[in-house]
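Design job #97: recover the sequence.
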């Protein structure tokens, strides 16, 4: 019965989903443009809603906070990160697993230009940097059991301690790579820069 109902309403459901997706994308595009043009803190929710052609109430149905408007919600970052790492084969080591997770997260950006604008805003806006740090610490805790399970249990030291150090290092390398990428106006590949940072630390 449910399958029949779904089949009968499939077209309207698809149209509804597409309409929501288009509206959501319009809000994101508008907010990123305004944040870039006049600054994150200087841009108001009311202005974004007005220029996107929606009410503030509608805007908040799609996005729970102003911070979410920067990229569709950083919680999505954490979900993709943990899902990617959790799906990897058991023989993938901690470093390889984290790299795969970070690479998957970077594909969430629609384009190179969009990624550059978002990273530039994050690194140049104190309130966004503070929010990112807070969420990053939570992401690191969520990743801990996944990475601890991939640590060499014959090595000296507790696996939890070593897992925390590896995760923190990976995030620090992502920060260093993205800061360099922004400073160079998007020149080069972000994951190549991440690999260079990691090699410098592990070298």
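Job complete. Output follows.
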């Amino acid at each position: 019965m449910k399958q029949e109902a779904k089949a009968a309403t499939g077209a309207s459901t698809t149209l509804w989903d597409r309409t929501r997706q288009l509206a959501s994308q319009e809000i994101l595009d508008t907010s990123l443009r305004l944040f870039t043009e006049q600054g994150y803190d200087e841009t108001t929710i009311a202005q974004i809603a007005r220029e996107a052609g929606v009410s503030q109430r509608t805007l908040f149905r799609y996005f729970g906070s102003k911070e979410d408007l920067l990229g569709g919600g950083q919680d999505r970052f954490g979900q993709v990160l943990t899902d990617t790492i959790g799906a990897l084969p058991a023989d993938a080591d901690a470093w390889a697993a984290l790299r795969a997770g970070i690479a998957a997260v970077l594909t969430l950006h629609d384009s190179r230009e969009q990624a550059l604008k978002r990273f530039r805003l994050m690194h140049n806006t104190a309130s966004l940097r503070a929010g990112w740090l807070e969420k990053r610490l939570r992401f690191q805790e969520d990743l801990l059991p996944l990475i601890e399970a991939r640590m060499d249990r014959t090595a000296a030291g507790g696996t939890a301690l070593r897992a925390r150090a590896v995760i923190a290092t990976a995030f620090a390398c992502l920060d260093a790579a993205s800061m360099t990428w922004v400073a160079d106006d998007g020149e080069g590949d972000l994951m190549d820069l991440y690999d260079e940072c990691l090699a410098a630390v592990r070298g």
